[in-house]
């Protein structure tokens, strides 16, 4: 029986993101704790009607502005907020180096069976294209298109939560106004008016709190997760490119380990910025 590679031996898993969970508990606990320390009670902000107005109103507004497929994708991405996927660049590098070593000894065609067994769909597709003898430029175009589409879809899905964070405070204000309308009906009883005003503003608290404690941070967390996935994709593509070019596995390793070093993404952003500015400087010089 053939030896199974790392992709077959170990399935990609995820673990709870304790930072997200701890952050939510800290934020909610701090707010409620401050309320109690100021002499208030948790019951003061426990208003089911206010929660219904804010949550249903916010979700409804998001549904109006978001296409269905993007909305469904955003719901699926919610798991990224509470769970951290096992995207270990070093494990991917070791797997690629194993393929590169075998391809250098026996030819890239010898990877055909192993390529079909790779669990990660991106790496499987890229390596299968390489085994089929596809030109490297074509492989890059196909896989870079896939990376760009995945990044664009993830950005759109993250914006769903950002949109919710924008709508929630406004819906909260609407809830407060609705509460004040009910208060105005009981102006004759000044005690009831005071209690009613306090209850009315709970909707505003729910709107602002949900936006700044959950919706906006969730969108930012999803974007951060996606950047890690995209970086892994770029690592895989560069590794397959090295295999196609017949580079020494040691050279491929040296190149790929840059992805694991701090500051890599910043260096890439600087290079892209300089490349974008270069045509403009050339045009200005020629002018």
How would you describe what is shown here?
By secondary structure, the protein is mainly alpha-helical. The chain has one domain (47-265). It is built from 13 helices and two strands; from the N terminus they run αβααααβαααααααα. The protein has helices at residues 6-9, 18-37, 48-65, 68-77, 79-82, 89-106, 112-117, 121-131, 136-184, 190-200, 202-245, 249-256, 264-286, and strands spanning 14-16, 83-85. The chain has a two-stranded antiparallel sheet. The chain starts with 5 loop residues before the first helix and ends with a helix. Residues 1-12, 262-275 and 277-287 have low confidence and may be disordered.
Q: What is the number of independent domains?
A: 1
What coarse outline follows from CA principal-axis ratios? Answer: elongated
Q: What's the Cα radius of gyration?
A: 27 Å
Number of E-type strands? 2
Q: Helical proportion?
A: over 70%
Low-confidence stretches: 1-12, 262-275, 277-287
Distance between the termini: 68 Å
Topology summary:
Elements: H1 6-9, E1 14-16, H2 18-37, H3 48-65, H4 68-77, H5 79-82, E2 83-85, H6 89-106, H7 112-117, H8 121-131, H9 136-184, H10 190-200, H11 202-245, H12 249-256, H13 264-286
Antiparallel strand pairs: 1-2
Characteristic key phrases:
single chain, 287 residues, mainly alpha, two-stranded antiparallel sheet, 13 helices, elongated, disordered C terminus
Compose a concise summary of this entry.
The protein is an all-alpha fold.
């Amino acid at each position: 029986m053939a030896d199974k590679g790392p992709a077959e031996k170990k399935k990609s898993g995820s673990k709870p993101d304790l930072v997200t969970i701890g952050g939510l508990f800290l934020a909610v606990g701090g707010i409620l704790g401050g309320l109690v320390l100021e002499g208030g009670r948790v019951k003061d902000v426990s208003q089911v009607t206010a929660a219904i107005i804010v949550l249903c109103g916010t979700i409804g507004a998001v549904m109006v502005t978001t296409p269905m497929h993007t909305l469904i994708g955003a719901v699926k991405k919610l798991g990224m907020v509470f769970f951290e996927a096992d995207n270990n660049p070093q494990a991917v590098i070791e797997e690629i180096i194993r393929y590169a070593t075998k391809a250098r000894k026996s030819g890239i065609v010898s990877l055909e069976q192993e390529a079909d067994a790779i669990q990660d769909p991106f790496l499987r597709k890229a390596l299968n294209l390489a085994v089929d003898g596809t030109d490297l430029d074509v492989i890059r175009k196909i896989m870079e298109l896939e990376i760009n589409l995945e990044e664009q879809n993830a950005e759109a899905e993250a914006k769903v939560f950002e949109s919710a964070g924008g709508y929630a405070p406004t819906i909260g204000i609407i809830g407060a106004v609705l509460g004040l309308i009910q208060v105005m009906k009981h102006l004759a009883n000044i005690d009831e008016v005071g209690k009613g005003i306090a209850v009315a503003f709970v909707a505003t608290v729910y709107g602002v709190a949900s936006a700044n404690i959950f919706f906006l941070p969730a969108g930012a967390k999803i974007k951060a997760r996606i950047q890690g996935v995209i970086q892994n994709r770029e690592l895989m593509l560069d590794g397959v490119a090295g295999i196609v070019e017949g580079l020494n596995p040691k050279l491929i390793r040296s190149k790929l380990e840059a992805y694991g070093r701090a500051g890599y993404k910043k260096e890439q952003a600087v290079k892209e910025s300089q490349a974008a500015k270069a045509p403009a400087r050339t045009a200005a010089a020629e002018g």
